[in-house]
Amino acid sequence: MYYNVWSQQESARYMAWNISTNEEDAKIRMEKAIVFQKEHDTYLVYEKSSGKAIGFAGVEKLGPCLYQETGICLGPNYVRKGFGKEILRGLIQYCREQFGAEEFIYSTRDENIVSNLLAQSIGFSMISSAAKIDRKDGHPYNLIQYSLKL
After folding, report:
1. Which residues contact 11 (CB under 8 A, 6 or more apart)?
2. What is the dihedral of CA 44, 125, 12, 25, to 10 degrees?
């Protein structure tokens, strides 16, 4: 995770976390992630062919039959190669089959072109746009929410 995601500025660009600058910080981050995952529906994402950790993703329940992704993050070398689409489809399928989800929400920043194209490619419809401020650097952005009826 350190080499492919947590040390990559591009990976953190649209996320609510800062990069890890050394392996010791990454080790501590991994320990915290493991504890966090015990209480949340979040997962490390591995590339099958290499066995390398290339990202993470998660989901949460918003209401009866309503679920949302809580972030999909991939290392920059794994973007635009179909991994995001496979992950998002997997999260949707998981929520439908395990929890009876009838609607799935996907959120992204308006400036994250790849993420917006991903939502549209799967058939999501935009339902809202809200002005936000990045807590890391004070940068203003619009958070776009998409919905997919299942």
Report:
1. 5, 19, 55, 73, 74, 75, 76
2. -30
What is the per-residue pLDDT across 24-68, written as a single tens digit (0 to 9) for each? Answer: 998 888 888 888 888 889 998 999 999 999 999 999 999 999 999
Q: Is the pTM of this model over 0.85?
A: yes
Give the 3-state secondary structure of the chain.
CHHHHHCCHHHHCCCCCCCCCCHHHHHHHHHHHHHHHHHCEEEEEECCCCCCEEEEEEEEEEECCEEEEEEEEECHHHCCCCHHHHHHHHHHHHHHHHHCCCEEEEEEECCCHHHHHHHHHHCCEEEEEEEEECCCCCCEEEEEEEEEEC
Give the pLDDT score at 54. Answer: 95
The pLDDT, as a whole number, for residue 124 is 98
Tell me the longest C-alpha to C-alpha distance in the chain.
43
- Region 12-31: mean pLDDT is 88
Residue 149, beta-bridge partner list: 103
